[in-house]
UniProtKB/TrEMBL annotation:
<dbReference type="InterPro" id="IPR018247">
    <property type="entry name" value="EF_Hand_1_Ca_BS"/>
</dbReference>
<dbReference type="InterPro" id="IPR011992">
    <property type="entry name" value="EF-hand-dom_pair"/>
</dbReference>
<dbReference type="GO" id="GO:0005509">
    <property type="term" value="F:calcium ion binding"/>
</dbReference>
<keyword id="KW-0964">Secreted</keyword>
<keyword id="KW-0106">Calcium</keyword>
<keyword id="KW-0479">Metal-binding</keyword>
<dbReference type="InterPro" id="IPR019577">
    <property type="entry name" value="SPARC/Testican_Ca-bd-dom"/>
</dbReference>
<feature type="domain" description="Kazal-like">
    <location>
        <begin position="54"/>
        <end position="101"/>
    </location>
</feature>
<dbReference type="GO" id="GO:0005615">
    <property type="term" value="C:extracellular space"/>
</dbReference>
<dbReference type="GO" id="GO:0005518">
    <property type="term" value="F:collagen binding"/>
</dbReference>
<protein>
    <submittedName>
        <fullName>SPARC-like 2</fullName>
    </submittedName>
</protein>
<feature type="domain" description="EF-hand">
    <location>
        <begin position="145"/>
        <end position="180"/>
    </location>
</feature>
<dbReference type="Pfam" id="PF07648">
    <property type="entry name" value="Kazal_2"/>
</dbReference>
<dbReference type="Pfam" id="PF10591">
    <property type="entry name" value="SPARC_Ca_bdg"/>
</dbReference>
<keyword id="KW-0325">Glycoprotein</keyword>
<keyword id="KW-1015">Disulfide bond</keyword>
<dbReference type="InterPro" id="IPR002048">
    <property type="entry name" value="EF_hand_dom"/>
</dbReference>
């Protein structure tokens, strides 16, 4: 869209002082927003090396597997972006190497997972704040505080602000932020009405209610 194109032009403009004068990894300085799915490549124009966002037309058969943020393994990063451009989707890189096989999640681990996930969200919410030794652990939070914590994370994950999380949103959270977490896939089946979307109420019930059920069972 127009907004992405404006941001892309601004990013390219900010690199002008470096082009032709220094030889850093120019693509580390440029974030590709358009074309959708593109990646940065250093190309030569008029004898000067410049970074440019392009959609790959062909890719080498070099085997250097990578895992995308939606949990799909590609032969190399070029093939990831070629597929993203074809589907017109912003599919980023989660990590190098193939996507990790899904381990078996036991019933006990699955029961504990929502509590651990809320613990992680609590840590993220406090990052950047001044250190407070008296900051309460999750075990001291009220139901209202846990609900507010879950709602805040839902709002951050809901990029298009439609009040729903798609399976793609949840896959991105899983593979980009916690690729080693083998209980994420079974846990994120919070879609009670099977419409392939998770609403705020479904998310809260899935995360807060199940977290508290596990916690109070231990007490």
């Amino acid at each position: 869209g127009g907004r992405a194109q404006r941001k892309q032009r601004q990013a390219e403009e900010s690199l002008r002082p470096y082009i032709g004068r220094v030889k850093p990894k120019l693509c580390e300085l440029l974030k590709c927003r358009t074309p959708v799915g593109s990646w940065c490549q250093v190309v030569q124009e008029n004898g000067i090396l410049i970074p440019k966002c392009v959609c790959p037309q062909s890719c080498p058969r070099q085997r250097a597997p990578v895992c995308s943020v939606v949990g799909k393994t590609f032969e190399n990063e070029c093939w990831l972006h070629k597929d993203a451009c074809r589907k017109r989707r912003r599919t980023g890189l989660a990590h190098t190497g193939p996507c990790l096989p899904k381990g078996k999640c036991t019933e006990e681990e699955l029961g504990q997972f929502p509590y651990r996930l809320l613990d992680w969200f609590l840590l993220l919410s406090r990052m950047g704040e001044s250190y407070a030794p008296a900051a309460p652990p999750q075990s001291c939070l009220s139901h209202t505080q846990r609900t507010q914590l879950a709602q805040k994370r839902f709002t951050l994950l809901d990029r298009n602000k439609d009040g729903k999380l798609s399976r793609r949103d949840l896959k991105k959270l899983h593979y980009k932020r916690m690729p080693l977490e083998h209980c994420a896939t079974p846990f994120f089946s919070c879609d009670r009405n099977r419409n392939r979307k998770v609403t705020l109420n479904e998310w809260t019930a899935c995360l807060v209610d199940r977290s508290e059920a596990w916690f109070y069972q231990l007490m």
